[in-house]
Amino acid sequence: MSDRQPPEMAQVASETGAKKIHRTWDRVLVSAFLGGAYIAFGALVAITVSSGLDPATWGTLPTLFMGAAFTLGLVLVLVAGSDLATGNMLLVPLGAMQGRLGMGDVAKNLTLVLLGNLVGAVFVAYFFAVSTGVIGAPGASGSAGLTHDRLAAIAEAKALHETPWQVFLRGVGCNWLVCLAVWMSLAATTVSGKVLAIFLPVMAFVAMGFDHVVANMFFLPASIFAGVPDLGWGDVVLNWLLAGVGNLVGAVVFVATSYWYLFLRDEPAEQPSRTPVGGEAAERA
Predict the structure, then answer these.
(1) Which of 121, 126, 183, 210 has its CB 3.0 to 4.6 Å from that of 40, i.e. a possible disulfide?
(2) What is the DSSP string of 162-208?
(3) Whole-prediction pTM value?
(4) What are the mean pLDDT values of the chain's consecutive 10-residue runs (285 residues total)?
């Protein structure tokens, strides 16, 4: 089967977004829990592979290594199948723009998915990052100490050193790229094609230090659990709010609206079937 062209991708994206509202709330939450956990695993391996690399020696290469490793998260979301708020910020509004669902459906879905993502990301942060000792306590030696120092540097930069305007703009840029990864994955009809489509945009946003609200649901709580000083829950929540709004703008304005205008504005809206179609799980984001 040949890869889809952009007009076909737009129809699949709209159909996928509309189908997301036909699931029960408990299934949405479970799917979103998995999505948050998968992104957290990607973030954890990204910290692990980039820790201990002194910027004075390695320059900006640690962020490149981190970005390459972090792609695991979105690969798991799209190929294994789960819900990720940043991807749904593209797919669900796109379905609404074509008249397949209402704005209330969009708000309900994004709220449930954000909640599930938060629980999944914090679960991995507490039990698999900190409680396992993969990320050590302050002053720890060996690899655990190196991962702690790397996590502390990331969290302090995001929650303490970026201005609110910077966090918002980094959120916009992040989800513009993440949603392009989701969008391009819809072109592929093979797992290898989806992985390749995901890799470069996700690596790019991480390498540039942009803010992904679900990734920050892992980085920042993990930092508090690991005893990073000067970081409080007020700083964390503010970062989530600013990054989340930026992510929403990046998805809706720069990807959903653009491709709706190019490929769907003059297309009739068809009500989606309530039965999942082949490949739907791999197209959930």
Answers:
(1) 121
(2) S-HHHHHHHHHHHHHHHHHHHHHHTT-SSHHHHHHHHHHHHHHHHHT
(3) 0.92
(4) 87 95 95 98 96 86 94 98 98 95 96 98 98 92 93 95 97 98 96 96 97 98 95 97 98 98 83 41 43
